[in-house]
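protien #1 (seq + structre)
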Amino acid sequence: GRIGVVAVTAGPGVTNTVTAVKNAQMAESPVLLLAGAAASLQKGRGALQDMDQLSLFRSLCKASLSVRAVRDIVPTLRQAIATAQSGTPGPVFVELPIDVLYPFHVVEKEIGGTKSARGLWGKVVQWYLQNYLRNLFAGAWEPQEVTPLPVSMPLATEDEVG
């Protein structure tokens, strides 16, 4: 009656869970599969272990979700847990890009670019990267709802028992 939680790395870590997730689906077991992913800016650009993980799990899971900003981690996990446990229980996949998981100063250092951009194109790229960073962490330090989720145990009606 409890949810199982699995955390794996991107790419091969994710693909190695396919059989287990299918078994969880067939057994109607609530499972939360948390997977790393390439940084958001590098998705679809040949980054290490970058693949379309969401598509892989769409047919195996009740939901396949991706966190796009730090502020969305808690709401996405709450939604995923509720989905896995609601109705007919089953697995849910949540993708967490690495830039969403790292602290601000680490991500800023990695994507900050040069501080003295040259030319118009350099200034546009610098503006884009700084705007991306601000959006990625916007609202990250705001209080989030962290109370336990309500547990719903559906009971059979008399017609279903009889």
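ok now protien #2
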Amino acid sequence: MELIKNISTAEQPYLFTRHVHFLNFSRFGGDQPVYINIIRDPVNRFLSNYFFRRFGDWRGEQNHMIRTPSMRQEERYLDINVCILENYPECSNPRLFYIIPYFCGQHPRCREPGEWALERAKLNVNENFLLVGILEELEDVLLLLERFLPHYFKDVLSIYKNPEHRKLGNLTVTVKKTVPSPEAIQILYQRMRYEYEFYYYVKEQFHLLKRKFGLKSHIRKPRPRPEFFIPSPLETEEPMDDEEDDEKWLEDIYKR
């Protein structure tokens, strides 16, 4: 209630950016905010977090000591393959079940890897988010954000491409990140199968949205995926012919 009150009474325009599990304001008598989010490939997200916790980024040589001062040396230098293959808690569920809970919401079952949390997360994406983009296509995400929320994101792509911003972005690259063995990667895929089903669902919805607004996809060649994943969405190389008015579509989103 405190969070809802703080956000609902903030002077506009107001953008709140934090790691918050989805909260339905309307259930508590508040006006639902416009939700946006960006997710990334689950294995890449996990690896980035694993090494960032240990070694930080290029913003400071001792940044890792500031972020994880209590981490023991044997833990800091734990080989990623050992962590995965020997099933250390950090490299197994529920720690790997990370993205879905943020979209699933506040219910305790949202923390339990399974179909229930997955389906609830999908439903919230459809009913409560203006846009959920994917980091691998960030420039297209920014273009759509500028289209949907120009008051907040005007010229965002030119800002993103500014050399000074790029220089700052390079400083946040994780230090000492290495790629696990193929065997370890395969195990991660298996443990994160719900995460990947959600990721590819979001990716497919994002591509449909891009088609709707005439954006062409420029997709990197995807890494091989195990058979249990849902098929990749069709490449969206041509704009979609749709008689529905785009502005009416946005109005409907805001009214949810």
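The radius of gyration is 20 Å.
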